[in-house]
Design a protein that fits this description.
It is globular and about 65 Å long. The strands form 3 sheets. Strands 5, 6, 7, 8, 9, 10 and 12 form a 7-stranded mixed β-sheet that branches. The protein has a 6-stranded mixed β-sheet with strand order 15-14-13-16-17-18, sandwiched between helices. The chain is built from 23 helices and 18 strands. Helix 2 links the parallel strand 1 and strand 2. The chain is an alpha/beta fold. The protein has 3 domains: 139 residues, D-Maltodextrin-Binding Protein, domain 2 (3-Layer(aba) Sandwich), CATH 3.40.190.10; 144 residues, D-Maltodextrin-Binding Protein, domain 2; 191 residues, von Willebrand factor, type A domain (Rossmann fold, 3-Layer(aba) Sandwich).
Length: 533
């Protein structure tokens, strides 16, 4: 069991990969299901590979986030491109009329509740070992900073979204789905709860990897809110300094039920393939295999839970009944509840960026000021209370400009960011590492004055370093940085002819992540990065 769960954790870290195919995505293939899916399903690939032999059905995954998937359904961009969707839950898209009408036959395959995992020593210190603990008690201790945790961005990943819904619903305590009025009434308790959040991420897999790095040391994080399956996999990986104790709040959880969902527009061949695959995945032997491979619970009666599942019976919390309530909860999270962000953009404006590339950069930044009014864009904009610094560079770093988005009337400051972005121009050489080092220098006094922020750097370049210090020089300088900024992650954006190897080294050494914008719109990549900030 420990071995297969460790393999499952490794699979989660490969969530950006999808099954290769020789046919264009838009063309249906006999015996193939083209599925738009949540990235955590990458760990199901061994089971799906085996299913090909039994069913003749091959799965071709394209991975996406929670809001992106719902928006693709709502705006019809899935039509003719995919045969099915497979998210951890259909609750959010089912609340959008234009998305709901595209959902066809839904078959639940497995389940995993979203729970809190804390280092065993922390659970002992809090006195929570072996007794029921409510979300209210968890929130109270979080407000005292008695522990810290990581959680995914609820606009990017269903585990974070489910955690937000779960704790809000439990604290409201009404026994039915939370509404807009109740969200306002529990805001003080929710603010306490999210005050202890020390890590954010756009995916459950990356969050687990980040937690492994920060489970020890001066910036230690004590635990994670994530799928039960991910927490079990982390324990089985052998990488943690001490195991996580899983806490199932006594007042309930929100559970992912992974419905394999045929699209209403799917053709006859896809309908047949969907039925064969769903039937196969729900056979007792395959349900057992899924449980052993991924750490998720079986949904077919008669398949016994394995010993790793400490809590057998779960209390399920109600999900918000309206899109308005869900949107209000997400808006409150970003603008009021969670710790504010500090984001520093180190942006290449060298001569090679002239033309379409500088236009794409301007557009990507402007979109984050609220110009992108899509469902995804609304929750990926610069947020109230956020501190945004833009540091353009060419032959050397230019003067940085810092903006702080106020809680009241943010439009004025967002307009200033928009005007600054629209004024960016391309000329000169490329001093990547002098400029990145300058970025850390800019962050030092800001972090010292206000340390209670999620802080990150975004480095975007379309070329290789041509001026100033080198990558080895930069990496050597990291150890001499002030402690407050030494752990700030750099999210690197590969664009144009940028060096994949060098940008990967920067991201890896700083605890960040590489994002590839060579074949997708830069604005989409900038939005994706927002899930990690």
């Amino acid at each position: 069991m420990r071995k297969v769960l460790a393999l499952a954790l490794s699979a989660l870290l490969l969530a950006g990969c999808s099954e290769p195919s020789t046919a264009p995505l838009g063309e249906p293939e006999p015996g193939t299901l083209r599925i738009l899916a949540g990235s955590e399903l990458a760990d199901l690939q061994p089971v799906l590979d085996e299913a090909v032999q039994a069913t003749g059905v091959k799965v071709k995954f394209t991975f996406t986030g929670t809001l992106e998937g719902a928006e693709a359904l709502a705006n019809g961009s899935v039509d003719g491109k995919y045969d099915a969707v497979w998210f951890s839950s259909n609750r959010y898209p089912a609340g959008l009329p234009e998305a709901a009408k595209r959902l066809g036959n839904q078959v639940k395959i497995m389940s995993s509740p979203v729970v809190l995992g804390l280092a065993a020593s922390v659970v002992q210190r809090l006195g929570w070992a072996g007794r029921p603990v409510s979300w209210g008690e968890i929130a109270a201790q979080a407000g005292k900073k008695a522990f810290s945790y990581g959680m995914t961005d609820p606009s990017a990943s269903n585990s974070g979204f489910s955690a937000l819904v779960g704790v809000a619903s439990a604290l409201a305590g009404a026994g039915n789905a939370i509404d807009v009025r109740q969200i306002a009434s529990v805001t003080p308790q929710l603010t306490q709860f999210f005050g202890a959040q020390a890590l954010s991420a756009g995916s459950s897999g990356w969050l687990s990897d980040a937690y492994v790095r920060r489970a020890t040391g001066p910036d230690r994080v004590d635990g994670l809110i994530n799928y039960e399956s991910v927490l079990l996999s982390a324990n089985a990986s052998g990488k943690l300094p001490e195991p996580l104790t899983l806490i199932y709040p006594s007042d309930g959880v929100v559970t992912a039920d992974y419905p394999l969902t045929l699209l209403a527009s799917a053709g006859d061949d896809a309908r047949s393939a969907h039925q064969r695959l769903a039937d196969h995945l729900r056979t007792p032997a395959v349900q057992q295999r899924i449980m052993e491979t991924t750490g998720r619970r079986p949904v077919v009666p008669g398949v016994a839970l394995g010993p790793q599942f400490a809590q057998r019976d779960l209390v399920e919390l109600p999900f918000p009944a309206t899109q308005q309530a869900v949107d209000a909860l997400l808006s409150a999270y970003f603008d009021k509840l969670r710790r504010p962000s500090r984001t520093l953009y180190v942006l290449d404006t060298s001569g090679s960026m002239a033309g379409g590339r500088i236009d794409a950069l301007r557009s990507a930044l402007v979109g984050l000021t609220g110009a992108d009014t899509s469902l995804t864009g609304r929750f990926r904009r610069f947020r109230s209370r956020e501190e945004v610094t833009v540091l353009p560079f060419s032959t050397g770093p230019a003067a940085p400009r810092t903006f702080t988005v106020p809680p009241e009337n943010p439009a004025v400051e967002l307009a200033r960011i928009k005007a600054f972005a629209e004024g960016l121009s391309a000329r000169g050489g490329t001093a990547i590492y002098d400029s990145l080092s300058r970025g850390y220098q800019v962050l030092a006094p800001l972090t010292a004055a206000d340390p209670d922020r999620f802080t990150s750097i975004v480095l975007m370049t379309d070329g290789e370093n041509a001026n100033g210090s080198s990558l080895p020089d930069f990496l050597a300088s990291l150890g001499s940085l002030p402690a407050a900024v030494r752990q700030v992650p750099v999210f690197t954006v590969l664009f144009g002819e940028g060096s994949s190897d060098e940008l990967t080294q920067v991201a890896t050494r700083t605890g960040g992540k590489v994002f590839d914008a060579r074949d997708v719109q830069l604005s989409r990549v900038f939005q994706e990065i927002r899930g990690y900030q």
